[in-house]
Amino acid sequence: PPLQNAELGKRAPRWIRDNEVTMCMKCKEPFNALTRRRHHCRACGHVVCWKCSDYKAHLEYDGNKLNKVCKDCYHVIIGCTDSEEKKKKGILEIESAEVSGNSVICSFLQYMEKSKPWQKAWCVIPKQEALVLYMYGAPQDVKALATIPLLGYTVDDTPRSADLPHSFKLTQSKSVHSFAADNEELKQKWLKVIHLAVKGETPECQNELQVN
Hints:
β10 (about 165-170) and β11 (about 175-180) form a beta hairpin. The protein folds into two domains: about 15-75, Herpes Virus-1, CATH 3.30.40.10; about 95-195, PH-domain like, CATH 2.30.29.30. The strands form three sheets. It has a seven-stranded antiparallel β-sheet with strand order 8-7-6-5-11-10-9. A two-stranded antiparallel ribbon has the order 1-2. Strands 3-4 form a two-stranded antiparallel sheet. The protein is about 15% helix and about 25% strand. It is of the alpha+beta class.
């Protein structure tokens, strides 16, 4: 069983195995081969990303030596409450399953930002916010990686030679988001919704666009 707050640092935790998680157990950022190495919090045993393991606390079970701990354990061990964090929950904390089940359109798309490599993202435009594109690492993830408010973007649906064949771009001043669908039919379904959203409109016949 996970350690209770009072036991943190006093007993060695059970380590969660690296392969049991695809995202940091604290900030929920996905791990990928390039950027996010997995670290263990020495107090609770959770697998966290480098940002969330960037804290150190004296742990009793390890002879009061300084150990890497996650942000949450750090605050518990040094005895500071973290009410600010709770206020920040905000826009990204909508569970994917929740919005996917009530969406204008949702499917996997390849996504590329600036010169980073293409990555697969579960993309959703929820019915209650049909002008916002939510991006998740996987359909069951509890937090979105990013949201793009589509209003005012320019859509460019001609793929460059280096792009994937069924790709399209959204641009607004300096920000450019590239997407690619697995096939032309899926690309056109997305474009149909996005062309409306960038003008601030929502589709009338929403049910036709459900993509499984």
